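Take the subject:
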Amino acid sequence: MQDLIGTSIQYQHKSLSVLDQRWLPKKTCWRPCNTIDDMVYMIRTLQIRGAPLIGIGACLILAHLAEQGMPETALYAGTEQLSASRPTAVNLGHCMQQVQAILQYAGPAGVVEYTENLFAEDVRLCKKIAQHGAALIPDKASILTHCNTGSLATAGTGTAMGVIREAKAQGKDVHLWISETRPLLQGARLTAWEAAGAGIPHTLICDSTAAMLMAQGRTDQIWVGCDRVAANGDTANKIGTYALAVSAAYHNVPFYVAIPHTSSDSTCPDGKHIQIEERDAAEVQGVSGHAGTVTWAAPQTPVYNPAFDITPAELITGWVSDSGVYTQQQITEQGGI
């Protein structure tokens, strides 16, 4: 397999490594990934994250093992194991279904070719999303974003963050409001780090500050990514996205979802049919990281910790994909993106 280099995943010299995003922005820590179990653990612990990237990462380990001579039966079993590691993001399931089909008609060599094409495709899709989205951003725009949608979550420049980067590259004066994104702080840790690296002026806020910003007229647009879009346009994204969309509708702030077509699920009729991943209570009871563990809730405190929520289609201004910009009516008429 040829070398494939991304911001947070690399395949070089027949070796796969993943940038452990749990350590950012403190330090860059690359970890080797040698087995299917390694990749499952990395996905579940969010060492690797982002709907497009976890699908790519799962394919990379399978392609690597295919080249090492792993039997087709073991590769097929690996697709089932990987697919179950995070259920909400549709890219992972789609990729594993493709690998299963390819194993049946092309064998392990076909998995390698598919993975190389998948990586290159994601880079292209990010560029197209950025071009379509940047056209919607006016000069001197103040933009709010949630979670992390940049090159840490894709093989390319990102989805929503890629749009913002492209707007800046076109010479537009943009300012980015970054919600911290509780409970794992992907906005504070990851998006702020990417914005600083790209030279994008930005300000970090608590999640609960967003509505006040809108009320003050200090937010012109909201841009988010997504993990799955149903056939009717209902969108699953990081928990807190729905609250932003409700506030945006009340304050008449345009709300855009940046999505590669690979995150669209035409087999899912609406958001009620999207399985929402629930994560460990410890993520809400405190925080664990490179500095140790800090707990602010009693261990016996009951916790509800869904990783995602569903934003109804009627709250979304537009879906910006690699093939163009879509309205709710267009998505409904064609049964997805």
Observations:
- The mean pLDDT is 96.
